[in-house]
Amino acid sequence: MKKRYLLIRPPLEEAYPELPNFRDRMLYKYMVFEKTVEVCLPYGLLKIGAYLKAQDHEVKLLDFGPHSWDSNEISLHKYGTRKTGNRKKEYQIFLIGNNMEEIKDILLKEKEPDEIFITSSMTFHAKSVAEVTNLCKEIFPKAKVVVGGIYASLCAEHTKKNTLADHIHKGPIWEADKYRSDISLLDYKPDYYIFKSTRGCPFNCSYCAVHFFEGRKVHTRNYQDVLDEIFYVNEKYGIKQFKAWESNILINFKEHFERILDGIIESGRDIIFGLPEGIAPQLLTPELAKKLYNAGLESIDIPLESSDEDMNKDRFHRVAKMRDFENSIKYLLDGGFNNKDIWCFVLVGMPKQALKSQIDSLWTVWQNKVRPLFMFFTPIPQTEEYQKHEELIRGRELGELHPYLFPFADGKYFTVEDMEDLLCIQVTMYPLERLHYLPSNSRVRKEILSNLAKDPDVRKYNYQLMLYEYFMRYEMEAIKNLSKQQGEFTIISFYTGNYEKFRQHYNPPEILDMVIKTHNELKNIVENSKLNIKGLSDNDNSPLVIDLFSFLYMDEKEITNTLKQNQSKNLTIRVWNKEAAVKFSNFFPEGFIDEDGNSIPVCNDADWWKEELKKLGYKVNNIVSDSIFTGFDLEKKEANEPAPDNAIVNINFT
User: Fold this and answer.
1) pLDDT tens profile 413-435
2) pTM of the prediction?
3) Topology of the domain covering 456-651
4) Class of domain 1-186
5) Which end of the chain has fewer CB atoms surrounding its CB within 10 Å, N or C?
């Protein structure tokens, strides 16, 4: 008998931490909301709808959730407040999508259905799922109301107790699984399309419930069926972005996923491919990394979770090791991916997880010159982590376990403020990128500065990117002035032929044309003058910045050692003026000092530098100064040569 089905996705309920020190509001909105809704098409309902239509039933889908990941198109509605982990602070909760008044008005205009299927996403969305379910039962008392999805499957008894649903469905509807998602059921064109080619997980990660939801045996769809689905949607709807919602896409890679990638590559279609759940680093190979890039992946996620090998093995039961993580990044870079497009999951905010351990994991990501993506922890029912910490969870509503409420920030291992500070520096490429947003008494800030003082490699990387972003215009002016002087000069530099890689990896597209023009001009100046460009034993493969005067990230010991080892008779260096610390405080964070209490980077007046250079056996022939930098043209004295008077000329080139 033909029936009328109403399929409903409720709005999402999300926490909104108030971060008074965080000024970049749009970026913040992106971090909190867009990363939450990125893969939130009602995937299951679209497949169920296709299945029911194939049985000749009448089907309508009402999507009350977000329809886009564009910040400007996300509708937020206040939905009360909830306490954070310390039980003192409260954060605003928002519904993303429609509010309950709008939902009621829409439902009142619908014809009475025979059955209503309501999906549920995260367990901490329980309240909005219950409210929509009860609203449906109130408006359509004769209809059979079925609640399914993640929350209903993991918390069937909780769903039964807190809703008026007639039936709770656990797990997938397997009869619908073989059908393609019917996006014609949506009343909007989505930005992307979700497909799933595998189900099940053989692993036993302590924080994950996939094996409970889908089973431990991995089932794969026919690869040609997956390709046909992608190409059909691309042709019929003009959708270019495809996201594979996969937990273990690399298992049985040769017989499954590799064939999907080959099909996409061979098709020559303009397809942008995504794997938002990440890939297992231990299964990645150099050949696969190149295929992922050629198939149209613009970015890729690698789960690090923690840099603590013991925690990964003993607590999380993860198979991947640190060497797998590091190798996977190398393979991806060699395969064509840019540093800025490699994201690494880092688990933070877990029960009894020390703040230092969390920052150590963040530091590992920065050491590998890629982006961190914090996964703020929420305990998932049916998992080992949930069961292990039930005494900390008991008495709390599921909604109070939202990851952005930082439910385990009890003050003993970490605080709510620590988590807020980590959220502020989410997705940063280097330590000082947004550190100035954090208050001066921040424990996160203190740990990062302490690490930065001890790690010259990360410090160099950090300042290279900052200098390039802020001071590129100064490089050209200084080089032009040097090129006009008599004699040969060696410029100690990080610019050693890696310009192209640097440009591709880090430059914002909007300034790319200007950078290329400047680079070509710089090459012409150097080639047509007696300037020599010398590197500082830079043997890694990281892009090297056009900082043609160096010493702008070093501490005193590093500078002294470099000058002692220098073999060039004539060279030019550049250092910070004393005034630079005031003008660019983000370059000179308060409390950034070496083990002897000296500030990093070195920021002293010209007289101090002259004395230091004299002690190291250099004659200062010329000083080029402006309001930020001081450049010294130096001549290295012979071992027994007396110290001559310095000939000093001040030139302002800004």
Assistant:
1) 999 999 999 998 887 889 998 89
2) 0.86
3) Rossmann fold (3.40.50)
4) alpha beta
5) N
